[in-house]
Specification:
single chain; mainly alpha; Catalytic domain of cyclic nucleotide phosphodiesterase 4b2b; 20 helices; 2 strands; elongated; binds zinc ion; EC 3.1.4.-
Length: 498
């Protein structure tokens, strides 16, 4: 097989090969080992292979061996390459999305700059009482409130007046509101930008104050009750989607920037709001104005894709509904509805508008429709806000309504007249159109009335004071006559005290 001769301390082997068959798993090391074994050399000997013309043969051999080895790994390699390609593809896609986001940010910033510039140029005549005007600007471009994945259980519960409104933090309420707009098909039907919807809701949240009662949770309650009524009364079959959008949006906006002191205080204290709106529903006018200030910012304008005519319709509808929440107009609005309800015509615009006004009124004062455990804490919140006002009125020497006076009011007296003379008559009228609300909404009201009457009897027995019957009659009277209350009641109250 071979001969050998000494050459610079290295050994030359001359192989005369006819054919060599290597195993398919053979590596260069294996081949080298084979030679070493065949020639009896130690395994770490350096071996050079030369072909018959004296050219170096080793590299070729090594390459062949490696190619063999690679060939068998090709499938493995294929998988790896495919994986890498997929990864690269994904990265390219993600980078592409980032580019889109960056582009969007850029255009938003540009718009914001232009808006700021144009605002600086404008005179300061518009709504200067918004001393915290800066609140109108959202804090960041893309709203980053954590996305809450609402469970199916929450989604189902959200459709009912029994929903426990106390369980949720602001972020969760925001997610719920967002869900309602999607669920009612408003986002899809009106091509609302979902990011704008988030930003708008966040801005709404920031523009409710932390009052004991008129706060963001109250906004959430009213909107959630509206959503419940839309579901319960199948309003989507009776109303257009524009009407549904108006109902929901008016509910969300209806108490924006409420200062915690009612219209009577505003008027008696001659506040800037009362002066601005000539004592005509100063608060409700203000809520509305703030709502449309927010819409005037392009990044919060959920109506951005509307044509001018549609926007006009939404604006008018929303204003009408928010202004209808002034309780001074309760009698007027309910009477007008009563005249229509027996021959109600869903194709008559005037009828529909009147019904929408009554619906937002129902939702606004619907706490007692909720289960007792949910409703009762709201009475404490309302009284806290009332007492805050009456204390201030006393300090400022302004008239104090008895139902706000911590010396005179109790929870049962506050609620009985209101449930009996305001809530039940209104809900019973709506019941004529939507009988399904009797069990779900009117019955809880009756139960609440009975419960508070029992509580009052206990209170009376404890105090042996039954002299205050006059009190809640006037309390309800106040709601029916609104501002004229003080002209009529104060002298009677004074007489009674003598
Ligand atoms: Zn309200």
């Amino acid at each position: 097989l071979c001969s050998s001769k000494s050459y610079y301390r290295s050994l030359s082997l001359f192989l005369f090969l006819r054919s060599v068959v290597f195993s398919r798993f053979c590596s260069p090391c294996d081949i080298k080992e084979l030679f070493c074994t065949a020639t009896g050399l130690s395994r770490n000997t350096t071996i050079s292979l030369l072909d018959s013309t004296g050219e170096l043969f080793q590299n070729v051999l090594t390459q062949v061996a490696e190619q063999f080895s690679r060939a068998f790994k090709i499938n493995e390699l294929k998988t790896e390459v495919t994986n890498r390609l997929a990864m690269l593809e994904k990265r390219v896609e993600l980078e592409g999305m980032k580019v889109v986001e960056i582009e969007k940010c850029r255009s938003d910033i540009k718009k914001l700059r232009e808006e700021m510039a144009s605002r600086n140029n404008r005179s300061v005549t518009s709504l200067s009482f918004l001393d915290d005007n800066k609140k109108l600007t959202p804090r960041r471009d893309v709203p980053s409130y954590p996305k809450y994945m609402l469970s199916q259980q929450t989604i189902d519960a959200l459709r009912k007046p029994t929903f426990d409104v106390w369980l949720w933090e602001s972020n969760e309420m925001l997610s719920c509101l967002e869900h309602m707009y999607h669920d009612l098909g408003l986002v899809k039907d009106f091509n609302i930008n979902p990011i704008t919807l988030k930003r708008w809701l966040l801005c709404i949240h920031d523009n409710y104050r932390n009052n004991p009662f008129h706060n963001f949770r109250h906004c959430f309650c009213v909107t959630q009750m509206m959503y419940s009524m839309i579901c319960l009364c199948n309003l989507q079959e009776k109303f257009t989607q524009v009407d549904i959008l108006i109902l929901m949006t008016a509910a969300v906006c209806h108490d924006l920037d409420h200062p915690g002191y009612n219209n009577t205080y505003q008027i008696n204290a001659r506040t800037e709001l009362a002066v601005r709106y000539n004592d005509i529903s100063p608060l409700e006018n203000h809520h509305c104005a703030v709502a449309f200030q927010i819409f005037s910012q392009s990044d919060c304008n959920i109506f951005a894709n509307f044509d001018p005519e549609a926007f006009k319709q939404i604006r008018q509808g929303t204003i009408t509904l928010i202004l209808a929440t002034d309780m001074a107009r309760h009698g007027e609005i309910l009477d007008s509805f009563k005249q229509k309800v027996d021959n109600f015509d869903f194709t008559n615009e005037e009828h529909v508008t009147c019904l929408k006004m009554v619906l937002i009124k129902c939702c606004d004062i619907s706490n007692e429709v909720r289960p007792m455990e949910v409703a009762e804490p709201w009475v404490d919140c309302l009284l806290e806000e009332y007492f805050m006002q009456s204390d201030r009125e006393k300090v400022e020497g302004l008239p104090v309504a008895p139902f706000m006076d911590r010396e005179k009011v109790t929870k049962p007296t506050a609620q009985i007249g209101f449930i009996k003379f305001v809530l039940i008559p209104m809900f019973e009228t709506v019941m004529k159109l939507f009988p399904q609300i009797e069990e779900v909404m009117v019955q809880p009201l009756r139960e609440s009335r009975d419960r508070y009457e029992e509580l009052k009897q206990i209170d009376d027995a404890m105090n042996e004071v039954s002299s205050d019957h006059f009190f809640y009659y006037y309390y309800y009277y106040y709601f029916l006559t609104g501002i004229s209350y003080f002209l009529l009641i104060i002298p009677i109250g004074a007489e009674k005290e003598e």
